[in-house]
Amino acid sequence: MSELKQELKEKIIEQLNLEDVAIEEIKDTDPLFGEGLGLDSIDALELIVMLDKDYGIKLADPKQGKSIFESIETMAGYIKEHRSR
Amino acid sequence: MPVYINSIGSVSAQKTFDNSLFLEEIVRYNDTVLEIIAPNYKDYIPPAAARRMAKGIKMSTVSAKTAMIEAGMEEDEIDAIIVGTGLGCIGDSEKFVSDILDNDEQFLTPTRFIQSSHNTVAGQIALGMGCKGHNFTYVHSAISFESAVMDAKMQLENEEAKNILVGGVDELVDHHVNTHRLIGHIKQEPVETMSVLTSGTKGAVFSEGAHFFTLSNEKRSSCYSELLAVETFNTLAEDQVAAKTKSFLSENGMGPDAIDVIILGYNGDVEFDGYYDTLATALFKDTAQVYYKHLSGEFDTASGFGFWLGNKLLKQQRIPDAVRLNSVPANSAQNALIYNQYRGENHSLTLLRKC
Amino acid sequence: MGIISAIGNNVAENYASLIAGKRGISRISQIETIHKDEIMVGEITGTNAVLEKQLGFTENEVSRTVLIGCIAADEAISNAGILDINNARTGLISGTTVGGMDKSEQYFYDYFDRPEVRQHITGLHAGDSTKKIATHLGLEESFVTTISTACSSSANAIMLGARMIKSGKLDRAIVGGTDCLSKFTINGFKTLLILSDTYSAPFDEERKGLNLGEAAAYLVLESDALVQKENKKVLGYVTGYGNANDAYHQTASSEHGDGALLAMEKALKTAGMQASDIDYVNAHGTATPNNDLSEGRALIRLFGEKVPEFSSTKAFTGHTLAAAGGVEAVYSVLALQNDTIFPNLNYTTPMKEFALDPITEVTKKPLRNVLSNSFGFGGNCSTLIFSKDKS
Fold first, then answer.
1. Can you give the residue range of the structural domain that contains B110?
2. C252 and chain A: CB distance < 8 Å anywhere?
3. What is the pTM of this model?
4. Is pLDDT at A63 greater than 90 in this prediction?
């Protein structure tokens, strides 16, 4: 699980061009959107594609993303349970 | 209602992002494509804002910011943002297309698609400034920038706006360059900067850049010039250029002899430079003549560099040696005329007066 | 005026479909895409081959955007009774977002090995489509430009034409826009998750997103002087226009429709009208959750409790992107000419956020002023007002 979390942090930084953010700065329970990392709705769409491409998870409804992408913790939990690759 | 150009901003293949300089030092190339000399973007754009920005947006942001600061213009004073761009953020468009093709329409992400909307530059500048005013983007090859200038002028004259941010931007990307080489729009052989005009070959040296200006109906202390007129023509035969120019000037109550400096868009393409010769060798043969695309390279909004140059030389009352076509002096230059066309199409005439 | 869309190849056919409630939405047939079973589109019936032949272009000479643009522009010119396009200061202002993208995406990698398709290289310039339409029309030494402000492009083209005539810069302006369907836009909107897998349902609580469409539409605007000189019959007047930026988000509209409200207010101001002068609103109404909520709220903010009859005609045509403003301008003029409001198809359930019901049946009503909205990415909001009489 901690490996997956680390991997997610790396991917988020790379995929979303968060050049000025270091991996250590993202805490597992920090909110990704709004105040925490400051991601927005376009980033959410990018993350949905990431789930599909890297973990084989297709979200039927983009609104589901809201709870899944709350933090690295919730994201890792969801992926662990639903991944097909 | 007069229209003043109160400030300028440029990012180009020369070191123009610093308004205190005026082509004292020329960066010489020996190439067929020129990239811009990038400022340190971090000095202008916070990293969080920059993370999704295409190169075209970054260049534009720097250039727009430079112009805003020089005029002492507050963001909330801007009533409209008008941008001209031949291709928009073409880098993202091309990546999105290649992603579609390479991944068989799967795993595509929205950012590149969003950036490839031509109006993304004007939209993002408005978003950054919180400007809810008129917001237009013109995308018509070599008159993209002039269309934006014309629109701004009309609004200021009709008192629909007081201050407008106007710009032109285009970026250079690989696929575009490679395909335009195939059809001979880009020179086959590298050419040295100061020999572009005498290359004797077909095609142009391609480049990129962003040029932004604040236009207002009130003069500020930073004022460069008054914009007297701008007109565009989709077609014009070579032997009609002089006649059109004359009638353009006479509509503005001037004859050719009132022009102190003529700025010509020569790009060293033997097939199309003849259009400029018709003015340089006859109507304006005794006028100080200036060219610039050997320094800026050719792109859809390269005439933005010409506009920048016209403003700069009227304000500073000096013609840098590197842009001179002849040695006619331009003492106390009052009026500058800019003529541009690309591949015999999309002609524009722009008339500036020292302010 | 002239138009070609999924519901007809000319003005008369479009009108017939509108009053018959006949939509042009179907599965996609002319573009090969892996999404073909998940989306519905508004496709123009004629294939490129048919359109090329009709116009006298050679095979694969130009983009579909140019083909449909020429057809609509030709109809507009002939409908306006123009015999010599260069007899007055005539301008062409066209809106497009994709331009020649249909060909660019098809030959992206082929250009290098196949010289016979290289005519499409310059087609990637959005302005190239306008240039080709100008050439087709025989327009010379004139003001010809292209506006690309996403889905409000042709509304802005109409606005610019009206402003230039008002300022005395042109006597006549051919204004509108053209956009064909492409893999580029299908996949682009797909990434934003705003494409519906069924018929789009504007202003419906259960709306799932938009149907993309393709269309071209142009109107001929002429100055009073030219109309008088040539003794022309006037179809309607562009009395109001307003452009504003939402400055809220790169793609989404603000929650309460700030930009939309501003654009509508500006349009009323230029027209010298009160909100109560508007008899019908042709809404942008894309059927995305975000747009319809934001636009609906803006309508309520402007009109208060008396929101006039309104409908979105996008369930007929699909969202035709840059052409939408032109298409809906033609429909607005048709509404005025026939005192008829066209229905908002597929509407059954009111949205929970407000009590707004669009018109769902063909409705006869004396109309003086029609307001038409067009919004786009980059926060672009445009409103036009068309009137039966000069204000």
1. 4-216
2. yes
3. 0.96
4. no
